[in-house]
Design brief:
Layout lengths: L1 H19 L4 H24 L4 H14 L1 E3 L2 E2 L6 H6 L2 E9 L2 E3 L4 E9 L13 E9 L2 E7 L3 E5 L4 E3 L6 E9 L3 E14 L6 E16 L1 H35 L1
Parallel strand pairs: 4-12
Antiparallel strand pairs: 1-2, 3-5, 3-6, 5-10, 7-9, 7-11, 8-10, 11-12
Helix pairs in contact: 1-2
Length: about 250
């Protein structure tokens, strides 16, 4: 602020000098020269003064938000909360996944999203307990499955645009990696369009964890199928002969 006051005072001296010495060229020239030196000194203080830096930065930020940047374009503004809510609407979601499987049997999981108050136009192709919810999403939705004990293969696109008159389907294939109890997590994400061209913002709309049991039954079944001849000759035939001999001895 001191630098600004010095600049204002110098400008005043210049005007006074011009008025009082208009008929005296020598004194006028001297006054102008003296005032110019003071003005340059004050300007130098403004350039190096830290008092004006924050104001200048704020001015630049404000100007950048509204001033043209190239070819007459203006910087886009961030979407307001009300603008985001205007993009969202209620839908019915239905998720199906088997609660148990064998280690060698891949399973499928299915998600169907239908606009609220409409009848689903797609029937579930996966056998399992159906879980239904109502959530708030946008026109473009991303659906993911996360798990540590399955290899997840996406059959349909992860990100899809919803229809306002029909159901939209997500389908996954899951290959078991190990036995035991595990969980599969479904996450539904709403894609929010911003004013930055094609840029997007993701908002988590729903998350659900489902417990799935992977058993060893199929392993035993496969072992019997692959080694039945060995089992027959080493276990079943000797055991059958033993039972036959005991039966004959008891009957005598």
């Amino acid at each position: 602020m001191k630098a600004l006051l010095a600049l204002s005072l110098s400008l005043s001296l210049l005007l006074v000098g011009c008025t009082n010495h208009s008929n005296d060229d020598v004194q006028l020239t001297s006054s102008i020269s003296s005032a110019s030196s003071e003005i340059r000194s004050a300007a130098d203080e403004i350039l190096v003064s830290g008092e004006m830096i924050e104001s200048i930065e704020e001015l630049d930020i404000t100007a950048a938000a509204s001033a043209p940047i190239a070819h007459g374009e203006t910087l886009p503004a961030l979407p307001r909360p009300d603008d985001i809510l205007d993009q969202m609407f209620n839908v019915d979601i239905s998720f199906v996944i088997p609660f148990a499987t064998n280690i060698d049997d891949p399973i499928k999981a299915e998600l169907i999203i239908t606009p609220e108050d409409l009848q689903p136009t797609i029937e579930h192709s996966v056998v399992g307990l159906e879980q239904d919810f109502v959530i708030l999403v946008t026109q473009v939705v991303r659906a993911d499955l996360r798990t540590d004990d399955f290899d997840v293969i996406n059959i349909t696109p992860i990100e899809q645009a919803l229809s306002k008159t029909q159901s939209t389907q997500w389908l996954w294939k899951l290959r078991p990696l190990r036995t035991g109890n595990t969980e599969v997590i479904l996450t539904v994400t709403a894609i929010v369009k911003t004013d930055f061209g094609n840029s997007q913002r993701q908002m988590k709309a729903f998350e659900k964890s489902v417990d799935v049991t992977i058993t060893k039954g199929q392993v035993i079944h496969n072992f019997i199928n692959e080694n039945w001849q060995w089992l027959l000759s080493t276990l079943f035939i000797p055991f059958a002969l033993l039972l036959y001999r005991r039966f004959r001895n008891n009957s005598k």
